[in-house]
Design brief:
This protein has about 375 residues and is of the alpha/beta class. The chain has 16 helices and twelve strands.
Length: about 375
């Protein structure tokens, strides 16, 4: 333990790859390299050396063979796993949660628990249909699933009491925390590596770009079908469970590149006509990375993109993209046409300036300033929404 530092416990849902949540965790691991780190599952070597050095302590789920390949199907076991740990004495608990990490039980001598909340569990609160589809109404599977989700929502709401302070990653998530838990929160946007993602003197080419996991709720089908209809070139970087369906939709102007390293993604962001972002996200780091490279963004006008992309009709700032209002092919296609008509209005300099608002140094300053204040004695730390 650090000689002069606080005793810190970190909790993360699972560690199976370096995505946006892990990049937030990495910043805290770098600040407190002797912290205790707990997670449901850990696939060794899947996260950065900064995180790996903390030797994450896992739950019983990690004992299941190859569990990192099918962990999403273990949702019924996750509440028990998250409450099974005995935390050591500490001065501060910081959980990074989009599933069950916030439910961790406090040690015998309670410490402040700050939850950096990516979202309340979206698959039981806000996007159940997108994740699970629909079983026939009244069928046994549908009734069993609804009973389980009812129980899980009750459990999720009840375990929010384990958290003394909530941080939300966006206004969208802040509203969800009020709706689901009846709690207030402070917004601290996630970090974006604007040093790595930066523009170079390359001409913009005519292809549109998608960079995403291939999950149904990402609505990549809209991007494919809109570009099919307009015969526009579209490159997709990514992979995932929805790939077969998406490939079946693709016409001759659609090209799948598979998942690519960051340097290849950056190269495409520097050259694309625009990034397409048709899903509703809690925050959405990729649109900010695109703007950091000078690329405009065409995004669905709900969720985090409304906080990171400046639309064409704003009068107080230079536009960095477009919002489309409905998740339908005709509306997205119309947005592409509008973008092309106004292409000269989108400045790489304005896009870059907007992205710098979300840089990593800003994240560290805001987060550690907040945590340092929490570590000071305060009265009545739990704040509930009116």
């Amino acid at each position: 333990m650090e000689a002069q530092g606080p005793r810190v416990v970190l909790v993360h849902d699972w560690l199976t790859g370096m995505r946006g949540g892990e990049k937030c965790l990495e910043v805290v691991c770098r600040r407190w390299p002797h912290a205790h780190l707990f997670t449901l599952l850990h696939r060794r070597g899947s996260v950065s050396p900064v995180i790996e050095r903390l030797r994450p302590r896992t739950s019983f789920l990690n004992l299941l063979p190859e569990s990192h390949r099918y962990y999403r199907y273990l949702l019924p076991l996750m509440p028990a796993a998250a409450t099974s740990w005995r935390l050591p004495p500490c001065d501060l608990i910081v959980s990074f949660s989009h599933c069950v990490a916030k439910a961790v039980r406090p040690p015998r001598q309670p410490a402040p628990h700050v939850c950096y909340c990516f979202t309340p569990m979206r698959y039981i609160w806000h996007m159940q249909q997108a994740y699970f589809g629909s079983a026939r109404a009244g069928s046994v599977p549908a009734r069993l699933r609804e009973r389980f989700f009812d129980w899980l929502r009750h459990w999720d709401r009840r375990t929010a009491a384990n958290v003394t302070h909530f941080i939300a990653i966006s206004q969208t998530v802040q509203h969800r925390i009020v709706e689901c838990y009846g709690r207030d929160s402070t917004i601290i946007y996630p970090p974006v590596d604007t040093d790595f993602y930066h523009p170079v003197a390359l001409p913009r080419e005519d292809f549109y770009l998608v960079v995403s996991a291939f999950a149904p709720y990402k609505r990549l089908d809209l991007a494919i079908q809109a570009c099919n209809a307009l015969r526009r070139p579209l490159l997709l970087i990514g992979n995932g469970q929805d790939e077969a369906r998406l490939r079946a939709l693709a016409g001759p102007t659609i090209h799948f590149l598979g998942w690519q390293p960051d340097a290849v993604i950056r190269d495409h962001l520097r050259r694309c006509r625009a990034l397409l972002f048709p899903g509703e996200e809690d925050f959405g780091i990729v649109p900010v990375e695109a703007q950091a490279c000078g690329a405009p963004v065409i995004a669905f006008g709900r969720g985090g993109a409304t906080e990171t992309v400046i639309p064409l009709d704003r009068r107080d700032a230079a536009p960095t993209g477009l919002w489309f209002t409905e998740q339908t092919v005709p509306v997205l296609a119309e947005a592409l046409i509008e973008f092309e008509k106004n292409r000269d209005l989108f400045s790489p300099t304005a896009a870059r300036r907007q992205a710098l608002r979300f840089n990593a140094a800003r994240f560290a300053e805001e987060l550690f300033g907040y945590l340092d204040r929490v570590l000071q004695p305060v009265a009545n730390p739990i704040r509930r929404a009116a």
